[in-house]
Structure to design on (186 residues):
C-alpha cells in the first residue's frame, strides 16, 4: 500500500494547476532573438540580438538590447555585405492579454545608436567600381510589436514585428524586420 501513496500524490498534484505570478515588478529577464529582414533571400538577410528586460507595473517593462544585422546587396554577380551593430534602450507597454498573462500583446518604443559597415570598409569593388556609401555611426528610434506567450513560469516565446528609423545612414532609413525570440525570466 505504501508504494501507491507517491503515485496517488502525483496524480492529485497533476490534476490541480499551480501557476506562479508572472510579470512581477523588478523581475529581470534575458532574451535572445533572431529574424529576417525583408530583402530576398532571408538566409542572407537576418538579425541576431540579445537583450535584458526589467519588469515594471501592469505588464510593462524596460528593454536594453544589443543587435547585429547582416544584409546583402547585389552588384552584378557580387554580393555587397551591409552589417549593422546597434545598442538599444526603451520601454515596452502592455496592450492586450489574458488575466494570467499567458498570452500578451506588447508594443515598444526604443532609442538606438550604432555603427554600420558597408562591404567591410572596402569602397573599391573588383571591377574598379567605387561605392559611394560609407561606413557610418548611426542613431535613431525603433518600434516593436510583440506577441508573447509563456511556455512555463520562466520561459517566454516571442513573435515580433519591428521597424527602425535611422539617421546618419547612406542606405535605407526605414528598416522593417520580423522574428522570434526566447526570454528567460529569473
Amino acid at each position: 500500500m505504501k508504494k501507491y501513496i507517491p503515485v496517488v500524490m502525483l496524480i492529485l498534484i497533476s490534476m490541480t494547476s499551480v501557476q506562479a505570478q508572472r510579470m512581477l515588478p523588478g523581475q529581470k529577464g534575458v532574451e535572445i532573438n533572431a529574424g529576417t529582414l525583408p530583402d530576398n533571400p532571408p538566409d542572407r538577410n537576418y538579425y541576431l540580438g540579445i537583450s535584458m528586460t526589467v519588469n515594471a507595473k501592469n505588464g510593462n517593462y524596460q528593454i536594453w538590447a544589443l543587435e547585429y544585422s547582416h544584409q546583402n546587396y547585389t552588384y552584378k554577380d557580387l554580393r555587397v555585405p551591409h552589417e549593422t551593430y546597434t545598442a538599444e534602450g526603451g520601454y515596452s507597454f502592455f496592450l492586450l492579454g489574458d488575466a494570467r498573462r499567458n498570452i500578451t500583446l506588447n508594443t515598444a518604443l526604443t532609442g538606438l545608436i550604432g555603427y554600420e559597415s558597408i562591404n567591410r570598409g572596402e569602397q573599391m569593388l573588383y571591377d574598379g567600381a567605387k561605392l559611394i556609401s560609407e561606413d557610418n555611426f548611426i542613431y535613431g528610434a525603433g518600434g516593436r510589436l510583440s506577441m508573447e506567450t509563456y511556455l512555463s513560469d520562466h520561459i517566454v516565446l516571442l513573435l515580433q514585428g519591428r521597424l527602425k528609423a535611422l539617421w546618419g545612414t547612406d542606405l535605407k532609413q526605414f528598416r522593417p524586420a520580423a522574428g522570434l525570440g526566447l526570454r528567460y525570466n529569473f
In short: The CA atoms of residues 8 and 109 lie 50 Å apart.
